[in-house]
Amino acid sequence: TQLLEQSPQFLSIQEGENLTVYCNSSSVFSSLQWYRQEPGEGPVLLVTVVTGGEVKKLKRLTFQFGDARKDSSLHITAAQPGDTGLYLCAGAWAAGNKLTFGGGTRVLVKP
Amino acid sequence: GAVVSQHPSWVICKSGTSVKIECRSLDFQATTMFWYRQFPKQSLMLMATSNEGSKATYEQGVEKDKFLINHASLTLSTLTVTSAHPEDSSFYICSALRGGRGTDTQYFGPGTRLTVL
Lengths: 111, 117
Known about the structure:
The complex is a heterodimer. By secondary structure, chain A is mainly beta. Chain A contains no helices and eleven strands. In chain B, the strands form two sheets. In chain B, strands 2, 4, 5, 6, 9, 10 and 11 form a seven-stranded mixed β-sheet that branches.
């Protein structure tokens, strides 16, 4: 079974603080995707990483893919209440293959 | 963009009835779509892979006779929950696989909330 561990499960911070979410596996990913999900809605794709060591930035969000392509992190700088949501990482072990989701990290940014 | 729609967005039904949920890729063709279910405060769990023109592939523990999947065209997959029971109440989400840009990416629909009374 290919598992994807996401941590922490829950994060509550004040507006303006930074946060990091981690996603780890013992298997090598073909690609890894990060999603954000609002209550009652489907996940929205934030980024896809495919190259070991890759770093992608999306405004205040920074995504890193580990050199060995087994782990990834999402870092949010100066978090805002609008960043509140469920963050999900999902890995694919082959192109076009099904995704396995991590358990999710529920982020609450308090004003 | 890559837009995926689901219909209905929510449905309430009586125990024992069947419910059909549609998933459409609006601006691209998808030979592969996926169906997930999500319980409150939990992550997404893959139920099955829907392949256009062929039988769906179900994950372990998912009853294929209860969750019927039909992928009749390149833009439409349907999930029918047969003889629904209260324990089938959940948030059902589909995704469509879009490729051709070096990396295949799944784009998700907005979800369908099913409540079985």
